[in-house]
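Obj.: predict assembly geometry.
Materials: sequence records (below).
Method: joint structure prediction, all chains together.
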Amino acid sequence: MTLQRTRTYECMCLLDNREVRKGWQTLKDSVLAMFTKHGAKVLSGRRWDERRLAYPIKGQQRGTYLLVYFSADTQALSAVRRDLQFNESLLRFLLVDCEDVPQSAYEPEAAFDINTIPSDDAPPPPPPPVASSVESSSDTTAEV
Amino acid sequence: MSSTNSNGGGGGYRDGGRDGGREGGGARRSKFGRFGQKRREVLPEEPLDYKNVAYLAKFVSANGRIQSRKRTSFSGQNQRKLAAAIKRARMVALMPFVGRV
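Observations (raw structure tokens):
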């Protein structure tokens, strides 16, 4: 006999901006489908923020955060976690227990334009080579 | 008794003790009150949550290390909540492991 118990959880998903630009709603639905697939009930799923990461992940300097509140059976949680790990559009996720869902989670998601996401995903360019200045200095000495 | 008199009434501390062998002063004044440091309270509008990055950033050093209880003046329970929140924020790249926030 297995113990069946439903709990409320909070999942912060860090999404790849390259996938977000392809379409926010489709990406969000595909992520939320991973929760409902295993019998979880999604209470709220809304975009939290788009910001610069504290450190680059998979070459990405920025990312979009999706905050999901869901209730699921404790036995189904490992399956949800495994599915999230296999998803390539997720850079990171944090799944924690949640006592109560805040009221702000039920507010409608603010509209945003995916074209406004800054496009500095690529790592910063390498510093310019200093060899040219050495060559020029050697040329000047040769002339003298 | 004779050893205390030789110190010149320095509050009972011996030479070379923790007070650095002070002479002529009163008893060493504690930095904190009798019942310890005054505890910092956690306000409901500023919870110790991993999403509250601006507040958590006040309790890390310039290198990104979690400050001690002596500096944060949190209770033991809240200090553990603070450490857990900072570590969670680090995992989702909201705060750096090393470096300035």
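Conclusions so far: The two ends of chain A are 93 Å apart (CA to CA).
To do: check interface contacts against the pulldown list.
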